[in-house]
Design brief:
By secondary structure, the protein is α+β, with helices and mostly antiparallel strands. It folds into two domains: 9-43 and 153-325, D-amino Acid Aminotransferase, Chain A, domain 1 (2-Layer Sandwich), CATH 3.30.470.20; 63-147, Dna Ligase, domain 1 (2-Layer Sandwich). The protein is built from 13 helices and 14 strands. The protein has helices at 5-8, 12-18, 23-34, 41-44, 46-55, 70-74, 76-80, 120-131, 154-157, 238-252, 282-286, 291-303, 309-319; strands spanning 63-67, 86-90, 100-102, 104-106, 109-111, 117-119, 144-147, 166-172, 175-183, 199-203, 210-215, 218-219, 256-264, 268-275.
Length: 326
């Protein structure tokens, strides 16, 4: 019997064979050559990203207000205009840091999806931390975005504990590469952050059906809290989701990017944010190395530099479809 570590640890040669992309390769071969520095602010500033998306006809969560100074912090409740639920996030945050989700209000208290309570003072303190740059890229002073809280489509809530799952799609030269769902758990406190214990669930680019899932890097078939299957679930409106993701590539001009979306039960797919440095956990979620897909896409883009959005989607869905469906 092979020792336990053989299942989880891989040699450099094995990782190369699997097509695994590490952070140095990601930056050196894909991010730096294809993402001009001048374009980063288009996606690092969430307010600007939402403005660009709206101009392109992409649906985004409604903005209730922007908290930019201490006076706004004191008066933040006026932005809510009686709304019971909302999301606060740093304008220049990354990795889900500093995001506060409020699911309801009652008797002057604010309730997170987990049921834990916050006072108005707690919320103001969180806003002050955002303004101080506690969660921003580079630790610089920031502003806070207050926006609509997505009410997740029922299929999505069925595989996520309390919080609404989001969808990450990585694109290269405008071609969809890999996709995953990030579903929350009790451990992650309703957040879709893999490092905090959320699930990474791989999604087949061709069909929008979940095909693989991991929790803390280890394969699973069922949600650890809900005990429901997380593999074989059909993501609704998949064609529209792919179209939004490819439009974000055209909107930003970034050659290598990640697009995050959520599916609202009434408004359908909404673009949440765009990332110029998407993380690498999507490989674990799918059980597929990025290099296995980035290299064919690079060759296709060089050979056919003027393909339309429809042609790029068609290439990815045909090339990366499961062998059994080709």
């Amino acid at each position: 019997m092979k020792p336990w570590w053989h299942r989880w640890m891989r040699t450099p040669a094995e990782l190369r064979e699997m097509g695994i992309v590490g952070i140095n390769m990601r930056n050196g071969r894909f991010v730096l050559p294809n993402n001009p520095r001048r374009l980063y602010d288009l996606v690092d500033n969430k307010v600007r990203t939402k403005s660009l998306a709206t101009a392109r006809g992409i649906s985004v969560p409604e903005t209730y207000g922007v908290v930019a100074n201490p006076g706004d912090v004191r008066a933040f409740e006026r932005m809510l205009d009686g709304r019971e639920s909302f999301v606060i996030k740093p304008t220049r945050g990354s990795g889900g840091k500093g995001v506060l989700v409020v699911a309801g209000r009652e008797d002057g208290l604010y309730y997170k999806p987990s049921g834990s309570r916050l006072t108005a003072g707690d919320v103001r303190h969180h806003l002050q931390n955002i303004l101080a740059g506690l969660y921003s890229l580079g630790g610089k002073r920031d502003t806070a975005l207050v926006e609509y809280k997505v009410t997740a489509e029922p299929t999505m809530t069925s595989i996520s504990f309390q919080g609404a799952p989001d969808i990450r799609i990585v694109l290269f030269h405008g071609y969809p590469v890999l996709a995953m769902l990030r579903a929350s758990t009790r451990e992650s406190d309703g957040r879709s952050n893999l490092h905090q214990g959320a699930l990474g669930i791989g999604v087949d680019i061709c069909s929008g059906r979940t095909v693989h899932a991991v929790h803390h890097g280890r394969p699973i078939d069922k949600h650890p809290d809900l005990k429901v299957p997380v593999v074989g679930v059909q993501v609704p409106e998949w064609d529209r989701i792919l179209d939004i993701a490819v439009t974000c590539y055209e909107m930003t001009g970034l050659g290598y990017l990640g697009v995050d979306l959520m599916i609202d039960q009434d408004r359908g797919p909404l673009m949440i944010e765009v990332n110029a440095r998407p993380g690498l956990a999507i490989q674990l979620a799918n059980g597929v190395g990025l290099l296995k897909r980035l290299e064919p896409i690079d060759a296709q883009a060089r050979a056919h530099p003027h393909e339309t959005a429809e042609q790029r989607i068609a290439f990815s869905t045909k090339t990366f479809a499961p062998a059994s469906t080709r």
